[in-house]
Amino acid sequence: MLRHFRRIVTGTATIILVAGCTGSEASRVTSPPSDVSATISTSTSAEARSAVLRWNALSVSLAPSLSPNGPLAPFVEARLHAITNVAMHDALNGVRPRFHRYADAGTVDRKANAAAAVIAAGYAAIVGATPPSAHAAALAAYNTDIAPLRDGNEDDDVDAGIAVGSHAAAAVLARRVNDGTDMGVGPYVPGANAGDYRFTFPFNTPGFDFFGTGGFADASRWGSVARTFVVRDGAQFRAPKPYGASSNAEAVRTPRYTRDFNEVKAIGCDGCAARTADQTEIAKFWVENSPPAWNRVARTLADSRRLDAWETVRLLALVQLAEFDGYTTSLESKYFYNFWRPVTAVELAGTDGNPATSTQAPWQVVVFPTPPVPDYPSAHAVAGGAAAAVMSLVLGHDGGAFTANSLTLPGVTRSFNGVFAAARENAASRVFVGYHFRHATDVGLAQGAAVGRYVALHALRRK
Length: 463
Known about the structure:
The chain is mainly alpha-helical. 50% of the residues lie in helices and 2% in strands. A two-stranded antiparallel sheet has the order 1-2. It is elongated. The two termini are 33 Å apart.
């Protein structure tokens, strides 16, 4: 059951490492457009694909309501979507095996109705991974989706599909039992030296000072206790030291930090005159949580590439596996280094030992508050880098051109010539909104790309 119901306005990221992927690596993960065997009809495949998209959308739509204190933290949301999408993936491959399943879900049942398998898997996964408040909506959707399948189909086939989907979800959920995600919050004592993280969440917010330490630091133990889906653990792709320095106090005296400090101070605050209108739009466009944002991008590209049900659900599953593992990797690095946020750095610039930095009052981020986790590296950039790396490797050709929209800036669309361009803009948005130093977003982008590339090369591979 999910317990980590906290708001972190962390959304997406960017990429650079994957651009160096070799041709042989790309060929091992790129899925050519629909090549479903002749043993399954086009209409059956279309029904299954429609079910995949509906249950993916339901998982995304339920997430904001699952926490009593506001939207879910993005790393918690990524867990839900990973479980849902992987369960659907395994269910389809329990009917027609085209890709290796994440969990052992039993034998293949080729007579099973593929759409029924998807629906049952999505339903069981959501019920198993969410609190009871989400179950009524999931049950209503299940009943609505299953009923039409019994019209014109053999009941035995539909029942067989339900069995396959239920078993697939149960197997995935079993692998995530006691995965450490409910133990992610722990006591946190901020550092006292220049560059050390200090609480950014309002100290007087009721219910957030869990341990009597004066404030709230989210997911302080997540990176070290949460079990990843595909990468070995949160430390496998740990980021290098901030600014290459031996300590945070040394880091804040480096020339690169000085440039980053003055950049975010000038363009990252609410009302900063140096920030352009386009930078303000980018800041607000990408401020939403990453999982729903990159889910939409993946669905858009799956449509434009005309992927079938198997290819579509695999893409969605890989994106969420990579985002969850990316968040866990980022949080491990964040709390390993404990680097302070720009809002703290500007306030305490007079005490950082760097004569080239100075305080400014008042100074506050564009979208309040700063997420309550350390600065380095940017988890938003990591999540976007991971998602973009997956899509680039699976789809090839940088994913292709697309147009995206945003939950946090309704009515605005932005167009990109590929997923890397979107991920780079997403990473930069965290500087424009005032949450991160540029170094944190650059390193986050690279870290996320490394995680995404690893996931795409090692999980749900073609048989």
